[in-house]
Design brief:
Shape: elongated
Structural class: alpha+beta
Mean pLDDT: 82
Largest sheet: 7 strands, antiparallel
């Protein structure tokens, strides 16, 4: 499932802050397309290793990225994956996904509707047992519902970062960041990198 449809690069230094910059860049890139986007999936590769495997890549990367990659062996390039199927169940998609050895990490961006736990319990109690579609409509219509865009990146060595942007505070300065904002999604994405 790999493609060079869109290649993004971000400098990465040892430690979580480098991966954070990569995840933040991917989130901003996806945000530039506006809301209502499908799930977006990215392979993360160390730029120096990618250049060793494919020297022609140097012609497609900006000079500043090449300089950063020469200075930092952990510099990452993200490669957006084409052909990601539209899915109802993200866990099912991630359960079928595996990355080849040349991929050092993965990132995904997905939009969700979140409501506070009390509001979710209220909606669950008010909707019929197996009516997931009705429950989803009721949650989306709840006055406390919030559209969010979630970006998660994980590396094979276990480092991970998250960025969450809400539609009501849709600016780069209002994006919440941290390693453990969405632990379930981090774990599911990390599982795609296990051998």
């Amino acid at each position: 499932m790999s493609s060079d449809a869109s290649t993004r690069s971000a400098p990465v230094s040892p430690g979580p802050s480098g991966l954070w910059r990569t995840v933040a860049e991917i989130e901003r890139y996806v945000a530039s397309d506006g809301w209502g986007a499908p799930l977006r999936l990215f392979a993360l590769v160390r730029t120096a290793d990618a250049l060793d495997r494919d020297p022609s890549l140097a012609r497609r990367l900006p000079p500043n990225v090449l300089d950063e990659a020469r200075a930092d062996p952990d510099h990452l390039t993200s490669v957006e994956q084409e052909g990601v199927p539209a899915v109802e169940d993200l866990d099912e998609l991630l359960g079928q996904l595996a990355w080849p050895a040349g991929v050092d990490g993965a990132a995904l961006v997905v939009e969700k509707i979140l409501v506070p736990p009390d509001a979710e319990a209220e909606v669950r109690a008010a909707t019929a047992g197996d009516d997931e579609e009705g429950r989803a409509r009721a949650l989306a219509a709840h006055p406390l519902a919030e559209d969010v865009r979630i970006a998660v990146g994980v590396l094979r060595d276990g480092r991970h970062e998250c960025a969450v942007r809400s539609r009501s505070k849709d600016s780069d300065g209002e994006v919440a960041t941290g390693a453990d904002l969405v632990p379930g999604l981090v774990g599911a994405l990390a599982a795609t990198l296990q051998d």
